[in-house]
Structure formats: C-alpha cells, structure tokens
From TrEMBL:
It is found in: Cytoplasm. Residues 146-165 are annotated as: Disordered. This is Tubulin polymerization promoting protein. It comes from Catharus ustulatus. One of its GO terms (cellular component) is microtubule.
Length: 196
C-alpha cells in the first residue's frame, strides 16, 4: 500500500485552499449570528454589514457602509434577500478593489481574505450590569421591613411559597402559642409523679 505524498503547505494551491476554508468558517459564523434558524449557507444583509464593520473592511475613507450595502444589493439576486458563499467571494472581490487601491486585484483580494480569516461576530455594545450602592441597597434582604421581611430567612434566601402565602396551621394550637407539642411531656411527667 503506497501513500500519496502530501502537498506542501507553502504551495500556492495549498495556501489558497487553507485560506478559503478559514474564510468559509468566518462566513458561516457571521451567517448564523443573531438568527436561530440560520444554516450558515446564506448570509443576510445585516450580517454582511456586521462582518464588514467587525473585520475592518469599512475604513471610513475608501469603503463606507453605503459602499457595502451597494455591493450587497448588486451581488444578490433580485427577489432574494441573502447571498451564498460564492456570491460572498464576489462581493469581497468587488470591495477589495476599493479598499486596497494601490495593489493588484489578486493582492487586494488576498489582503481582504486576511482581514476576515479566523474572525467571528463581536459583541459590542452589550449591556453590562452596574454595581451601584442604590441597587445593592434595594436587593439587600437584611434591610427589608414589614411583610417583605417575612419572605426571606436569616441568611437572605427566599422561603418560597411559605414566604408568599399564609399557610394554615392545623396543629390544634393557637397561632401565638410558644410551647406547642409539650402537652404530652407535661401530662406524662405529672402522671409518673402522681403515681409514686
């Protein structure tokens, strides 16, 4: 059994195949971002714009958000709202001419691939919790008063249903009686004392 020799990774064909797989992986990450039903094979215009912003394709001078939207509209079909991976590569080729003006078409396209490879959607502008004294004062259960205080035990853990509802005590004792359950001890104690 003779194995075929592996292609060297520094050959142009091997490098292009590696770049395309990394490029396709980035395409899939951005294609599914924010859409639970997305398969990763088609990308919406919103995700295309996000990819261009997150990967610094939009530089503000040569390529703007308007350019990105125009290229997307030109590449996609008339009645379609998404682009495939092949159309995505066409759109990158179109934008690479604008983004890297001083370079040849092939060099510009390779630079564009380098900007995208290995990247994924970023979470910019995500709301973060703020630890302020006002919030901590409002959530400190040891400072609760009245009926709210009854909903938590001494450690601050909620009592659950017992803290929300008045549960009926069917033990036979008055609700404020402190020595519930001691009657049998008293009676038996007194009987043993009497019989002696």
């Amino acid at each position: 059994m003779a194995d075929k020799p592996a292609k060297p990774t520094n050959s142009p064909e091997g490098a292009a195949a590696g770049e395309l797989s990394a490029l396709e992986e980035a395409f899939r990450k951005f294609a599914v971002h924010g859409d639970t039903r997305a398969t990763g094979k088609e990308m919406h215009g919103k995700n295309w714009s996000k990819l261009c912003k997150d990967c610094q394709i939009i530089d503000g001078k040569n390529v703007t958000t308007t350019d990105v939207d125009i290229v997307f509209s030109k590449i996609k079909g008339k009645a379609v709202r998404t682009i495939t991976f092949e159309q995505f590569k066409e759109a990158l080729q179109e934008l690479s001419k604008k983004r890297f003006k001083g370079k040849s078409d092939e060099e510009a396209l390779q630079e564009m691939y380098k900007l995208i490879e290995g990247k994924g959607p970023g979470l910019t502008g995500v709301t973060k919790t703020v630890a302020s004294p006002t919030v901590s004062r409002l959530t400190d259960t040891s400072k609760f008063t009245g009926s709210h205080k009854e909903r938590f035990d001494a450690s601050g853990k909620g009592k659950g249903r017992a803290g929300r509802e008045d549960l009926v005590d069917n033990s036979g004792y008055v609700s404020g009686y402190k020595h519930a359950g001691t009657y049998d001890h008293k009676v038996q104690g007194n009987k043993s004392y009497i019989w002696r």
